[in-house]
Amino acid sequence: MFLDSDLLMSALRALTPILLAALGGALCERAGVFNIGLEGMMLMGCFTSVATSWFTGSPWLGVLAAALAAAAYSLVLAVGAVTLRGDAVVLGIAMNLLAVGLTSFLLRTVFGVQGTFDDPSLAGLPLIGGFTPLAYLSWAAVAVAALLLSRHVWGLRLRGVGEAPDAAATLGVSPAKYQYGAILLSGVLCGLAGAQLALGNVTLFTENMTAGRGWIAVVAVMLGRAAPLGVLLAALLFGLAEAAGFRLQGLGLPQQATDAAPYVVTLGALFLTTARRRRRPRTTGAVQ
Amino acid sequence: MTRISGALRSPLTFSVLAGLVIGALFLLGTGADPVTAYRAVVTGALGADGIGSTLTTGTSVLGLALALAIPLRAGLINLGGDGQLVLGGITAAVTGLHSPLPAPLTVVLALLAGMAAGAGYAVLAALCENHFGVPLLVSSLLLSYPAVSLASYLARYPLKEPGSSLPQTRALPDGVALPAFGDSTVTLGLVLVVIAAAAYWFTDRRTAVGYEIRMTGLNPRFSAYAGVERRSLTLKLMALSGGLAGLVGAIGVLSFPYRFVDGSLTAPGYTWTGLTAALLAAAAPLGTVVAAFFFAVLQVGGLAMERTTEVPRELTQVLQAIVIVFLAARLRFPGRWFALTRRRRGSEAV
């Protein structure tokens, strides 16, 4: 049987990094900041988690360091797009490029290796019931984000900032403050996503190991209309595509075909959903 | 004089200088002497041993920089350069291997086929935006992955060179190659790309179409009001963009090593370096040429720096990205960028 619980389990494992990053992206989107730097922030998280886990022997410190490092990195977007009112799209692209260069550079200077750092003594995250604790955290984060955005005053103000920054400012809500908050939170979430990828899904660091997952997360935000539950469904779709790809590879399909599957599925889903709703509020990095 | 002082105070100069200073800090951090390292970059890329390599790399970087600059001029970002590039390359390889025409005509046919493949694939991304509302930025990027996978599959299975352990196609027949200059690896491809740059400059500066494209980048609503049809403009610009990316792929295959090698077109990161160059120049034609050359020097010089100072060549990639981070943080949108920062410059220490 092709669709079975094993497939679902591996889909759930594959979706965790996407989900964490996409939740961060959704918060930014709601605050009116288009964050396409998710990929780069994730990659920073990957490297920091591996480096910290290796030097301290604790994957937990690795997770913590990844969250902090990615949050610090997200300040580039916050300062650039919110304070200096730069172009968020260009900044995001540059941040993704910078992360690839920086992590490859650090890989060479810190570990003296090129390509992949893979050491048996590198401690990965433990599994509880087949999942890392970060996977459970990601599901909890969906619920928290959903409640925050729909019920809590912080979430309501965040949405207000994204939808009508001038009105929010008139009511004494500082758009910049909420946008900084959303971007920093997205940094933390992307850091966790990176840690999950490098210490959970596998236990190693490879150059550019996010391989487009941050971009898939950006798409998941669009697909899920920046709502936590919608984002979860979109990430599940990606997880299923990746898991099904692995399964098909076992059945003899070439790896190149299965590598492409998640992107094709994501694009297909985008066609089906965006065609039905053409007009959406546009977000830019700049507060008008 | 005012022009010189203006150039020195421009955000562009500031960003490049900031990038170089931060790069120097990185170098100090690794225990290297920045002056020695930077000198190694410049002499390695522009010295007698490196200039050929710089011009070869520059051909690809400039080609992709132009490919991405042309839509960027109208405010459209094509992130699918990799996919368009490899499809152009693999199509040129297939054409070169199977064309019944005499060698010189086969070269022309392979170039055209590569351009057509790249253009067709880029148009697909434009159609996604026009008819399904998927933003071009996202559709072009997502489409890139299956294309790279497809080319990789073709080079590893159906088109693989029999008996070889490398993922590559057979070598092109004798004579199916772009003429090279002397003993160097620099081919006629450089001339083709320079002609494309000149055509872009002429169109941008001297024609109504170029004016329309610039206006669309500066103010899409105004240009729509003035009668510029955005959808067809997107389609045309993406076709041109993908065609140029495909041309670079075809040039890559028709130059040394005269075959399609899986990963050899994408691994050097021409797409991203090209995009960085186009962004740095705000897609202006002459600026794009200068920026592409600057980044080709960095890329080739980085290797020389690695040899002489043992600083990883990835540093040059960091440098490129830092320059764009600084530029993006201070600027806003193609064309509008400079006007806005000029107004704010008074309060900033440059």
UniProtKB/TrEMBL annotation, chain A:
It comes from the Bacteria. It is a multi-pass membrane protein. Pfam families: BPD_transp_2. It is found in: Cell membrane. The chain crosses the membrane at residues 60-82, 89-107, 127-149, 215-240. Keywords: Cell membrane, Membrane, Transmembrane, Transmembrane helix. CDD domains: TM_PBP1_transp_TpRbsC_like. This is ABC-type uncharacterized transport system permease subunit. The lineage of its organism: Bacteria, Bacillati, Actinomycetota, Actinomycetes, Kitasatosporales.
UniProtKB/TrEMBL annotation, chain B:
Signal peptide: none annotated. It comes from the Bacteria. It is a multi-pass membrane protein. Pfam families: BPD_transp_2. Keywords: Cell membrane, Membrane, Transmembrane, Transmembrane helix. InterPro entries: ABC_transp_permease (IPR001851). Its main location: membrane. The chain crosses the membrane at residues 12-31, 51-72, 84-101, 107-127, 134-155, 175-202, 237-258, 278-303. It is found in: Cell membrane. This is ABC-type uncharacterized transport system permease subunit.
